[in-house]
TrEMBL record:
GO terms for cellular component: cytosol. It holds the Pfam family Hydrolase_3. It comes from the Bacteria. PANTHER family: HAD SUPERFAMILY HYDROLASE-LIKE, TYPE 3, PHOSPHOSERINE PHOSPHATASE. Gene3D superfamilies: 3.30.1240.10, HAD superfamily/HAD-like (3.40.50.1000). This is HAD family phosphatase. One of its GO terms (molecular function) is magnesium ion binding. Coiled coil: none annotated.
Length: 302
C-alpha cells in the first residue's frame, strides 16, 4: 500500500508554462490526506517557491524535500539538511570565471528558517550574466536575475546553481571537467529544458532525501511512490520500488521507472494522486501500478 507520495514539481506535477498546480491536483492531495496518507514535493526549488506553486495551500508542502533534497520537512518541521561546502563553491566560481565567458555561479540565501529568497551571482563580470540570461534556453527565466558579488559569503548554502548560454551538450562536457576540479560537489540538470545545473554536495541527491523522509515518517521504501521526469529525479526513481515516470520524462528516467503514466500537460500525476487516495480504504495498489503493457512497462492509464 502506498502511504507517501513524493513528486517532482516542474514538468511533472506542474506542466511547462503553468503558474502552479491545478485545482484537481490540490483536490488529489487533500483526498490523500483525508485518507490518512501523506504527500510531499521533492523539488530543486527552494521552500519559498512552494507558496505560489501550491496557491499558498501550506498543507500541500508542509512535508517535502527542497533544494534537490538538501532541506527536508515533515509536518512543517525541519528533519534534516545537507549544506554545500562554501570553499568548493568559491573554487567552482573561480573555475567558471577562468574557463568560460558565458557561465556563472548563482547562490541562494535561504536564511536561518530556510524560507528566504535572496540570491546573488558570484562573478566580477556582469556581462556574462546577461549572456547567460538572454540565451534561448534561459530567456524565459529573465526575471530571476540577481546582483553580482565577487565571492561566496560565509552564510551556509543549501541551494546554488550554474547558469550558462551554452548548449546542453556543451554543459554535459563542462560537468565532466568540473567533477575533476571540484569533486566535493555534483551537478544535475533540474529539468529537460533549461541551460543550467543544480549543485549538490557529492553523495547527496533526491534519492537520499526520499529515503530519509520515509525513515523519519516510519515508512519502508515500498510504501513510497515517487514521480519524476528529469536527471535530478533519477536517484529518487532508483531509490524506491514504486517509481513513476510521466510521459514527457527523458529517456533515462523513462527506462529506469517501474511504472509509467500520462504527461504532465494532461495532469497525469494529479490523476494518480486521486487513484492512490481511493485505494487507501482497501489497502490495494492503484490500477496504474497493477498493469503491465506488452513492452513490460507500467500502463499509462492516468
Amino acid at each position: 500500500m502506498i502511504k507517501l507520495v513524493l513528486t517532482d514539481m516542474d514538468d511533472t506535477l506542474i506542466p511547462a508554462g503553468h503558474d502552479g498546480v491545478s485545482d484537481y491536483a490540490i483536490e488529489g492531495i487533500h483526498a490523500m490526506q483525508a485518507a490518512g496518507l501523506h504527500f510531499g514535493p521533492v523539488s530543486g526549488r527552494q521552500p519559498s517557491a512552494m507558496g505560489w506553486m501550491f496557491k499558498n495551500r501550506s498543507e500541500c508542502f508542509s512535508t517535502g524535500a527542497f533544494c534537490n533534497g538538501q532541506v527536508m520537512f515533515v509536518d512543517g518541521e525541519v528533519v534534516a539538511s545537507r549544506a554545500i561546502d562554501n570553499d568548493a563553491l568559491m573554487r567552482l566560481a573561480d573555475y567558471l570565471e577562468q574557463e568560460t565567458d558565458d557561465t556563472f555561479l548563482k547562490v541562494y540565501s535561504l536564511g536561518d528558517d530556510f524560507w528566504g529568497n535572496d540570491a546573488y551571482c558570484v562573478t566580477s563580470d556582469p556581462e556574462r550574466v546577461c549572456r547567460a540570461m538572454e540565451s534561448g534556453g534561459n530567456a524565459w527565466l529573465k526575471g530571476e536575475e540577481a546582483p553580482c558579488r565577487p565571492v561566496v559569503d560565509d552564510a551556509t548554502v543549501f541551494k546554488a546553481n550554474i547558469w550558462s548560454a551554452r548548449s546542453r551538450e556543451e554543459l554535459a562536457e563542462l560537468r565532466e571537467r568540473v567533477a575533476a576540479e571540484v569533486p566535493e560537489i555534483s551537478l544535475v540538470f533540474p529539468n529537460n529544458r533549461v541551460r543550467l545545473f543544480d549543485i549538490l554536495p557529492a553523495g547527496w541527491d533526491k534519492g537520499c532525501a526520499a529515503l530519509e523522509l520515509a525513515r523519519a515518517m516510519g515508512m519502508t521504501p515500498d510504501e513510497v511512490a515517487v514521480f519524476g521526469d528529469s536527471d535530478n529525479d533519477l536517484p529518487m526513481i532508483d531509490a524506491v520500488p514504486n517509481s513513476v515516470a510521466v510521459a514527457n520524462a527523458n529517456e533515462v528516467v523513462t527506462a529506469a521507472a517501474r511504472w509509467h503514466i500520462g504527461a504532465a500537460a494532461d495532469d497525469a500525476v494529479a490523476g494518480a494522486l486521486h487513484q492512490i487516495a481511493a485505494c487507501a480504504a482497501t489497502g490495494e495498489m492503484p490500477s496504474f501500478m497493477r498493469q503491465v503493457d506488452a513492452a513490460g512497462l507500467g500502463a499509462t492509464n492516468v
